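so my prof wants the structure for this chain in the tokens format not the other one, which i didnt know existed until like an hour ago. anyway here's the sequence
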Amino acid sequence: MAITGIISAIFIGIVIGALGRLVIPGRQHLPIWLTIVIGIVAALIGTAIAGVFGVADTRGIDWIELAIQIALAALGVSLAEGLYGRRKG
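here's what i got, hopefully its the right format
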């Protein structure tokens, strides 16, 4: 993977992680680095799932792939918030 691919993955991870946090109601107490990691993982897994269903490469914006990635990020943020909050509390 080239450096541009790594930078792209981090940027997409930030965006997907932030969108995942916005979907979850209430305030989350996760560190920003964990949100970025969750976003990167959700983006990668979401792309793989979209590829399995054949919706990863469509003309224009891949809305279904984006929805899958955001849903996975929201799930990841929710799970991490539960684990992180339990550990800190």
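also thought this was worth mentioning. The helical segments are 3-23, 32-53, 63-88.
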